[in-house]
Structures are given as structure tokens and as C-alpha cells.
Amino acid sequence: MMRLSLMTLGISLLFATQAPAGDLGFTDTPMLPGGKWHVHDPARPHPPLVTPGKTASEAPSDAIILFNGTSLDAFTTIDGKPADWTLADGSMTVPHRDGPHGDGSLTTKDAFGDMQLHIEFREPAAVSGTSQNRGNSGVIIMGQYEVQVLDSYDNLTYADGQASAVYAWKPPLVNASRKPGDWQTYDIIFERPHFDSAGKVIRPAYVTVLHNGVLTQNHQEILGKTDWKTLATYHPHANALPFTLQDHGSAVSYRNIWVRKLAAQEE
Ligand code: MG
């Protein structure tokens, strides 16, 4: 029995020492463009381990949780006052206000450049208004670039202003809206614009959006700062800025907001 075990061990060791090291990479392979790494280079840094959430909506281990249903602490009003949206039932809702919309938008305290953002929203179950006045809100990335939030379930409006549009620029590839009252998701991958020292755009911003898991913006170039009835143009800004959740006078709710800051990918 002992002899058999030793023999087994010997075979195992023999196998281990003779296992091809090439399993973990090669250095006798061609160089990749950029001149830094061989094809299958064993010295190439490995991506960090991240534990995903149990569902694609649940934050992975390296995410910054901005809102988990219990506190508005990660947000302020645009003018820096404590966030005052209605916090109830694990969600935050644009409160009813008298006066013009926009006064009560919230902005993150933290600043973001390239990022992956997960956010869930719910249009009011009690439908009111038409076109842009039905469930309007928005995720205004860097305070500049709005991914529209709107009740676009059986609600016609201009195409570049419906849910998941890059506002005033690109309609979504499809309308993946759920009906009002149902929770919906946006998964947004954003690449910030780059400016030279004179403020000229040397690389525009890009955005990818999945609406309820459906691709609606595919690495879409952004034209500039979005605005109503205006051709978007860029205004030079910092490399990282807060994003805004728009108060457009509709009682839109949000929940489960998390962000992963993205480092520039190694080449
Ligand atoms: Mg909006």
C-alpha cells in the first residue's frame, strides 16, 4: 500500500516536473502590436479578481455603492445642500415641487471619469402627461451628457429624447422600455472626453447603454454637452466630475445605484 502511494507520488512528481510550462504562457511567440508583450506572454499582468453579485444587478466586490435604499448621503442638491428627495421603500423619488423643474436635481458627491454605472429607475405607475412631460428625468454624466430617462412605454416623443437616448443627439437602437410602475435598469459604460491644454477635443466621449439588459447605445460617440433644442458642443472640463439625476418635475424613482471607476486599459 505504502509502495503504491510512493509510486503514485513519484508519478505525480514526474508528471508535475514534465508538465509543459507553456500552459501559463510563452515567450517564443510573436510580439503583439505595441512591442510590449508576446502572444500569450506569461509576464503580462493579470486582471484583478472581482466577485460578481448574485445577479447582474447586484454590485460586484469592487463597486462604489452610491445608493442602497437607506441613505441619500452620496448625493447633494446642485447647490451643495443635503439631498432632499423622498426616501421610502428602498428607493429615492423626485418630490413634488411647485415651480419650474430642474431646481431639485441631485448630484453625486464623488466625481467620475471613465466608469461603469448601474442604476435602476421606475416611472410613475399613475401615468400623466405626454411626450417629454411623462416621467422625465435623466442621468446626466459629468453634469454634461444626458442619457434620457423617460416613460417611453406607449408614449411618442421625438426619437432623440426618448428613454435611453443620448439626449438631443442619438435615439436608442431599440425601445426596450418596461411599462410604468415596473423597475427598469440602465447599465452605462462611459468613456470621458479628452481635451488638449488649449481645450480642444482630442478624443470625444463615448457611451454604451444597456436598457433592461438590451443594448441601446453601442460605444456611441457623444457630440457634446446635451441641451434642449441646441446642437451639442463640448465645453472643456475636468477629468472627473459628479453625475446628476435630473429633477424634471416627474415623480421618477431610483434604486440600487453603483459605480465602478474604470482605469485606462493597459496596452
Ligand atoms: Mg431628461
What can you see in these coordinates?
Helices cover 6% and strands 27% of the residues. With 267 residues, the protein is mainly beta. Strands 1, 3, 4, 6, 9, 12, 13 and 15 form an eight-stranded antiparallel β-sheet that branches. It has a five-stranded antiparallel β-sheet with strand order 2-5-14-7-8, with no helix packed on it. A two-stranded antiparallel ribbon has the order 10-11. The radius of gyration is 24 Å and the shape is globular. The N and C termini lie far apart (54 Å). The relative contact order is 0.19. The model is unreliable at 1-19 (pLDDT under 50). Magnesium ion binds at residues 136-138, 146, 148-149, 246, 248.
The first-to-last residue Cα distance is: 54 Å
Structural class: mainly beta
Gyration radius (Cα, Å) is: 24 Å
Helix fraction by DSSP (H/I, runs of at least 4): under 10%
Order of helices and strands: HEEEEEEEEEEEEEEE
CATH third-level topology of the largest domain: Jelly Rolls
| Largest β sheet strand count, sense and barrel closure | 8 strands, antiparallel
Instruction: Report the top-level CATH class of the largest domain.
Output: Mainly Beta
Number of strands: 15
CATH architecture label of the largest domain: Sandwich
Note the beta-strand portion: 25-35%
